[in-house]
Amino acid sequence: MAIFFDEQKEIFRLTTEHTAYFIGIVDGTYVGHIYYGPRMEDCGCGYLLRTKESPLPPSENIWDKAAFADAFPYEYSTWGVGDFRNPCLCVRTAQGSRTCELSYESYRILEGKPDLPGLPSAFAGENGAAETLEIVCRDTCIGLKVILRYSMFADSDALMRSVLLVNEGEEELYLERVLSACLDMDDESYQMLTLPGSWARERHMEYRPLRHGSQEVSSQRGISSHQAQPFVALTTPNITETTGEVYAMHFVYSGNFQAQVELSQFDTVRMTMGIHPQGFEWVLKPGESFAAPEVVCVYSNQGLRAMTHTFHELYRNHLIRSRYLHQKRPVLLNNWEATYFDFDADRLLAIAKEAGEAGVEMLVMDDGWFGKRNHDHCSLGDWQVNEEKLPGGLAALTANLKKLGMKLGIWFEPEMVSKDSDLYRAHPDWAIHIPGRELTMSRGQYILDLSRPEVIEYVYESVAEILRNAEIAYVKWDMNRQMTEIGSTFLDAAHQGELCHRYVLGVYELQERLLKEFPDLLLENCTSGGGRFDPGMLYFSPQIWCSDDTDAGERLAIQEGTALLYPLSTIGAHVSVCPNHIVGRVTPFETRGYVALGGTFGYELDITKLSEEEHRLMREQIALYHTYQPLIREGDYYRIASARENHQYDCFSVVAKDRSEVLVTFIQTAARANYHSRKIRLAGLNPRAAYRWQETGEIYAGETLMMGGILVPPLMGDYAGRLMHFVEVR
Ligand code: DGJ
Fold first, then answer.
1. Dist. CA 8–CA 15, nearest whole Å
2. What string of DSSP letters covers 533-575?
3. Of 40, 173, 300, 499, which is the most exposed, with the fewest CB atoms less than 10 Å away?
């Protein structure tokens, strides 16, 4: 990793082990993007900015500066001076103008990586070397300073970008659009890879061709959302796991976002990412600054796998702070699909008793333990234990669980208030709403206005008070609706456009405080399943509930899309009963375990209703978890075959960092009559090592496993699965 400025050529060079990023200054003013790709070092690449061909730069062609602006590959685009592609920045002045033009002013190269105030961002960590380039630009007409930040770590090929705005003028500025990153390149017949979805159908990989004009993936729901992951990648055609180029951006943010790819009249592409401008406006007083959240950029010319590994390593080494990152997570049983709201202490303890005997280590009490919450239309905000359901409160429950050798985890939905709640009756103003306009109900609840300091205080104290008074090892932090009628009675008219961003900052502040006061807490974020599965939340919780769809078949595609970016150790996955509550599908109990092992692993069922055979299988699964969890948590993930593509089977593997073992998960989604075994080529092994297939005792050469493959015999039935473990013979 190194950042270098060639003073003579006015070129910045940023290199990681395998990549290089070049930025050039034209006319001493315009900051242009020269190159992002495989590592090279030659600063003689400035000609790639095409400054010797028409339209010439303004120093030689001032009579047609607009033509230059219309084509120049800007590092950070602005609106109003001739660049008619998507802008990163749009600033309104007190006089009402919206034009902004940035001129290069200076640069700094810093050791380390500065934090972003109030925002999650990648950090160097104790032993990680980092370097940061700050390019300072200015619009002198409006007194705005813009600092473009680029950071890299010694052990990563990722490039982190963010932007800091400072009002150094005399008047207020109104930020209408502040994106975090822009990448202008020539088109190479790119296709766009995104992870669209829906509730219970999150993050399915999807490719689309680029068309002239702008295409986007975005969320205006107040959360990053089930529908759109804050991720976009451009890939060369026919990209595979190991061949082809990919340019990816992933947003470290948990609210509204917009990622656009614009194919221009000259067949250049502009890729941008940042906070969604819809409804956004931030008042920047003289002297104030605004930090745009971080975008992680990853480039690979070795196909998707290298991109995935770069994201996984970055998030494991530089984003997830939890002490549980490298620890075995307890085997938990969550009572949601077991009981929904219909439980009391006796029922929970009956489940816990059998679960404990099977090897479950923690009972997670989900929604329904507080206020009068026997259905989803009331009591959010009234965080007092319902002693009718739980006599003696949490103290009695934890004491009884302790006797069974089990810990307690608990569910909260802290950001919400039910219409039917004491909190709402006392403070209707605390809900996000617009006075005089009917507030749209969703799941019978409203969203609390986290821009209000007293709401932050109330929410924090409600959760903390419970945790202070009971031995709770784990919190599932849920969030179950999207934003409508976005208004705050706390903010004045000029600041209403800040609400969505202030809300996200409020969520971050709450979780930061919680983890400070309860450093041993294992936090799992959740948003109606995986509606806020984003790098921002990962900064606070080492695992996120992946989807409310616990069907093993559906989960293959959901977890595949999730694992495109996120390590398996972050993916909340549980075994549930069949027919599955969401899709009604019946899959073998074993397969449900194999799929859940590809995540954090746990149960979401009423064990008292399981057969003896299922009890036995459950004990076996838990033993598998104990055996394989260090490998799954710490190893390298490989996508091997996707049922999404071949409609017959799915296969992924996890290889130990030292390549001494590999666990292969194979699920046959559709059985086929009269057919031979499946040939599966493994990856990531030592070609010169020998490996023992533990289940058969057979020995294979690493190179044969990778080039020739293994033969998986046909299995009986749809969704039959198999785990295969290979260990190096030394
Ligand atoms: C949505 C979550 O995703 C579920 O797991 C469960 O906790 C429910 N909310 C409870 O209301």
1. 19
2. -SHHHHTT-SEEE--S---HHHHHHHHHHHHTTS-GGGEE--E
3. 40
Cα–Cα nearest to 608, from 358, 345, 388: 358
529 CA: nearest ligand 1 atom: 3
Active site residues: 478, 548
| Secondary structure (3-state) at 273 | strand
The CA-atom distances, in angstroms, between 151 and each of 291, 308, 648 are 15, 19, 43
* Distance from residue 153's CA to the centre of ligand 1 (Å): 37
Distance of CA 699 to the CA centre of its chain: 39
- Closest-CA residue, ligand 1 atom 2, reads 528
Q: Compute the distance from residue 478 Cα to the ligand 1 centre, in Å.
A: 7
> What distance in Å separates the CA atoms of residue 87 and residue 220, rounded to the nearest whole number?
18
- Give the dihedral of Cα atoms 317, 318, 322, 323; nearest 10 deg: 40
pTM given for the model: 0.98
| pLDDT tens sequence across 592-619 | 999 999 999 999 999 999 999 999 999 9
224 — pLDDT class (breaks 50, 70, 90) = very high
- The single-letter DSSP state of residue 707 is I
Whole-angstrom distance between the N-terminal and C-terminal Cα of the chain?
35
Six-digit token pair at 184?
Answer: 């202008």
Span 466-499, pLDDT tens digits: 999 999 999 999 999 999 999 999 999 999 999 9
Q: Which residues of 670-685 are buried (b: 16+ CB within 10 A; e: fewer)?
A: eeeeeeeebebebbbb
**How far, in Å, is the centroid of ligand 1 from the Cα of 147?**
41
CB 571 within 8 A of CB 600: yes
Cα 584 to Cα 172, 247, 552, 698, distances in angstroms: 57, 39, 11, 39
Residue with tokens 């759109």: 228
Query: Pocket residues for ligand 1 (CB within 6 Å)?
Result: 336, 366-367, 411, 478, 480, 526, 528-529, 545, 548
Tokens 């001739």 sit on residue: 82
Helices first, then strands: H and E counts in the chain: 14, 38
Tokens at 250, concatenated: 């992933």
The residue assigned the tokens 């699964």 is: 621
